[in-house]
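Hi L., both proteins are below.
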Amino acid sequence: MSARPHEPRIETTPEAAPAPATPAEVEARLRQQVILSEFGVEALRGKDFDLLLQRATELCAQGMGAEYCKALEYLRREDTLLVRAGVGWKPDVIGHATIGADLASPAGFALKTGRPVISNHLADETRFRTPQLMADHGIRRAINVLIENRDGAFGVLEVDDSREGMFEEADIAFMQGFANLLGSAIERHRTEELLRASLARQDLLAREMSHRVKNSLAIVASLLTLQARSAEGEPAVSAALQDARSRVEAIATVHDQLWRQGDVEDRDGAGEAVPGEIDLATFLDKLILNLASGAPAHRLTCTTAPQKLSADLAIPIGLWVNELVTNALKYAYPIDRFPTGGEIRVRAEHEAGTLTVEVADDGVGLPAGFEIGRASKSLGMRVVGSLARQLGGTLTLPPTGQGTTFRLVVPLERGLG
């Protein structure tokens, strides 16, 4: 079971009531959620935990617009916190420097109480002392959140800055998202070690990992849903977060199929398990069913013959289909022209060493000057073009009498059984 995400409880000095968010602040929050969503995928697929910790500090500092960030690991015997990874610090800090883990230290307080800490005026701080490491770097303000998993506290994620400014309570949600993902990654890495030691069969390991990755992705999707609800007053932000959630759920569907099919269905002619393969028809059917549940006014159909596909191909194909179906649900059938909705069709066909995947509708068609790929103004269409390139496929828009058809032809020298 994955670690339960923290509910932020802020330990901070009293501040004046916040003013309404400016457009720049809204844009900054949106950028934070995009960064968090991207790191979520890295956290769930990364194999080197040290690199993952370092990446988390880099992205967290970037999202906060801060000079410094560090991931602190709790050393229980010494009752200290070791700087395990970080950005902005002097070369001899990472892997060597420690700070106290007692309640008089901001990071120690967050560790021992589980309560996030904001201190925007360390020089005037009466609750805590300023650790020597931070004093040496001229740190003026800091914000700390706990990293934990089911085995307890791993340590603390901290962002620091030597410049004047204010960390806000809204920053806690962003940082806690990183901490929760790191906690899940720690748990996953430990679970992998145990499984490698105890499981003799590789296919059983793959199934178990896929199950845990699916559950971890569900946590990411839940976090994005919560953030979207909190941003209901900002439609653009809410829509972007819902789109990110949909992409994460598409990847989760692949891992769900890997776990469920496993060695029960994925057998080759010799009766041995074929790890890392899923039935594309089952996968796309479930993906379309999930999308249809959120769009009852429309009719979504999927036509795909049973065929085995590697997870490395299924994930980008699923994301490609997810982007285009979501786009069609939004724009193909305007309610003023199609009050009863419309049909969206997904088809996948394997022939002569290629896989052809189509998403089609009978709606209003594409606007003038429509572009796919890097030149597109739409993030979704840039994702569609990027996934097509990743698959080494050919993307076309064959002419139709009405509506729009996207066709992707992917070479399958490897990956399809």
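That was the first. Here is the second:
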Amino acid sequence: MMALIEFTNKGIYCKQGNFYIDPWQPVDQAVLTHGHADHAKWGNKSYLCHTLTKPILTERYGLSDNVATLAYQNTIDIHGVKLTLFPAGHVIGSAQVKLEYKGEIVVVSGDYKTEHDGISTAFEPVKCHTFVTESTFGLPIYKWQPQQQIFDRIKAWVAGNHQKGKTSVLIAYSLGKAQRLVKHLAGHHPIYVHQTIANLNQAFVDAGVTIPSTIKISPEIKKDELQKGIVIVPPALADSRWIKSLINPAIGICSGWMAVRAGRRWRSADAGFALSDHADWPGLLAAIKATEAEKVMVTHGSTAIFSRYLNEIGISAQEVKTQYGDEEEAEEKADENEIKEEGTKI
């Protein structure tokens, strides 16, 4: 039997259906798992994605007419391949792609996390023969605290900053992390967001997603007003002159990488919160076991170590090289491009 997917120089290809999943080079038909810039790229002739990923493509790339959408658990037939999307829990609109052809079932998960974040649709394991998994945090050292504990720490940090007369600045992706912060921090202090975050929030609201109201940062807002609230900006502005011009700015980095290291560029940060949109080590293992897959393909992240461990515990796994690259770097570039195009000034 011919394999249902193959890893090519353009991306994950389904020959039977003649489409690619999250291609990293332009193709005729792209099926997207989610809207992060390392998975959703401009230049494809046509796109298929979840209903709530389309607003991201429209906002970031101006795509609309050539984007078809599919709701979770709805199935379409593409040249005999049954394609269904299931929630991945990564960000709003993120999906796992289930392919079924002549009795063979393959699930390409994209990026995912297993703890429900309260704003994305919760991850749902799908039984299959072959499961394609990420391994961004595929090391035993990565074990997330319950997110409520992390948000409680952030709230305590903000309260402490206010007592000391500091301005609380949280650094977070415009897509994913920012919406989680707004959802869980709303109601305690005014939340001010950068324009790139405000644009995505509005796109989601227009699509029917409930997101607490925020205030878009503008030159008219005075620095002492920002000092009384919570400021959320993307990583592209982390070292900007604007942040340095705030009243006693205190910078908090929201990233899974903060669990073990800050990285050279974050050494000057005042706080780090290990808030991730990816599954940790226990989450990856639980998700994979729930699929009951006979074969696991391990992509971007700690591929060698994670695939070796799966084989050691009796799960047939294979390391697969892809060109997804670094999500953090890709998302920061996407924000930089939007800031440049819009001439955003704050």
